[in-house]
Amino acid sequence: MVKKDIYEHLADIYLDVSSKKKNKNTKLPPKVFKNLFFISIAIIFSLTALFIFIFLGNKNKYLFTKWQEAKPISSEFALVLQPDIVKINFHFDPARKETYSLDLSKINLQRFKTLAFSAKRANFKDNIALRIELTSAFKEKSEVYLKDIPHRWQEYKINFSDFKNISEWSSMLNLAFIVEEWNTKEKRGVVYIDNIRFLR
């Protein structure tokens, strides 16, 4: 072998080894591939979960809000007569009763079934019975008594069937809330009534 051939042979070996090293260095180890794969999967799942949480969460919140707004209408259709608080201030000297009256203007209540309102007394020590009276245009009058009106707000619902003397609800004249002297412990005090309405 000539010197020239030896040099060329050595050069080929050197170049072949160095190119193999380069190729080996440019290839990523299998562990890195696995790690990159799992990281990319985790990122995709995280982004999907975040999207579902934000989008569906807001959608459900919107549906829940709509359901809350619609619930009172569907379950309790009300004809509100007096949304504000009414104050019956009684002083039985010389009066015998104190009345708060609402003119119903011959309203047709045939499609309604219940009178609803909230009530409370001001004096903690008092003991008050409240008389609720309905009058029709056909000269029918009927009353219901609520005993021991509490010191804190209480919701009352009285069925029309409890007003025994009224048979025709197509033309109603008057609704009255009455505090009578013989139905109170104290001679003076206050009864509050709120959110008076008729319910279907």
| Main sheet makeup | 5 strands, antiparallel
What is the CATH homology-level superfamily of the largest domain? Galactose-binding domain-like
- Give me the oligomer status: single chain
Please give the share of residues in helix.
Answer: 25-40%
Q: At the third CATH level, what is the topology name of the largest domain? A: Jelly Rolls
Task: Look at the structure and give the CATH class of the largest domain.
Answer: Mainly Beta
> What does the overall shape look like?
elongated
Number of helices: 2
Low-confidence stretches: 58-75
Give the N-terminus to C-terminus distance in angstroms: 116 Å
Structural class: alpha+beta
Mean pLDDT: 78
SSE order, one letter for each helix or strand: HHEEEEEEEEE
Radius of gyration: 42 Å
Strand content: 35-45%
Overall number of structural domains: 2
Number of strands: 9
Can you tell me the CATH architecture of the largest domain? Sandwich
Describe this structure in words.
- The chain is of the alpha+beta class and 200 residues long.
- It folds into 2 domains: 3-75; 78-199, Sandwich (Jelly Rolls).
- The protein contains 2 helices and 9 strands.
- The protein has helices at 3-26, 30-75; strands at 78-82, 86-91, 97-107, 114-121, 128-136, 141-146, 154-159, 172-184, 188-199.
- The strands form 2 sheets. Strands 1, 2, 4, 7 and 9 form a 5-stranded antiparallel beta sheet that branches.
- β5 and β6 form a beta hairpin.
- It is elongated.
- The chain starts with a helix and ends with a strand.
- Residues 58-75 have low confidence and may be disordered.
